Amino acid sequence: MKIRVDKHGKPLGEVELGPGETTIGRAPHNDIVLGDRAVSGRHASVHLAQGQAVLRDLKSTNGTQVNGRRITTHTLSDGDVIAIANYRITVFTTDRIEEASADPPTRILRLDRPGMPPGLVDEHSTRRIRQIRSTRSGAPGSTRTVRLRVMGGCNQGRHLDLIAPVTALGEPGQEVVVFIRDGDDLYVQLVHEGTGRVQVNGKVLDTERRSLAHNDVITVGEVRMIVVAESSADELGAGTEEWKLD
User: Fold this and answer.
1) CATH number for the domain whose boundaries are 2-92
2) Could you say which of 3.30.450.20, 2.60.200.20, 2.60.40.10, 3.40.50.1390 is the CATH number of the domain covering 107-231?
3) Boundaries of every domain in the chain
4) Burial class (CB within 10 angstroms; exposed 0-12, middle 13-18, buried 19+) of 242
5) How far is CA 139 from CA 183, 213, 246, in A?
6) pTM over 0.90
7) What is the pLDDT of residue 173?
């Protein structure tokens, strides 16, 4: 089993996990040193035995997350993403490291950044989005225009055209949803489960795909968005900045 360490999207290296304990932290005596003040001196450890790797948070100050959930212990699987401060540590089985590294990333547009720039993409999110994309019926694409009007945060008042079959929005590793266009239908689905911070019309979005209609309200974290269908395009107003995905 190998892990790949990235910071702010830049790869820092790969480490082959050996039998026994591998420690992670800011202090120089750790096996994997993460030089960031938000990382505890002895932050976490991975214990590998009989082909099973168990991650433990060592009572760190800022905690350890796996696939967006804070953990104390977690048995690691291929594709898991460990978040420690600004570092993302992706877990690979040895026979998949080259294949996964060569795979192009999936874009996740950041709602919490001006202009919604693409965010860091982890293997867990990529696998989930691919799985969701594969469940589309393959119906012919609709010519109907569907947009999201952003009602809060730094992008308030702007609009996003939902052109691609699958568009991912949110914050990688935390609240991430995908909007799915399937023929004339529009759906929303979670990428990461159980945060309780993703809602449709005031109701928490569970793991099931939810159909959307004009004027439905989607809340992701602190940001609200309203679905605007083609029949109400005149509501968009002149001079509104838009982003298009292809």
Assistant:
1) 2.60.200.20
2) 2.60.200.20
3) 2-92, 107-231
4) exposed
5) 5, 18, 18
6) no
7) 63
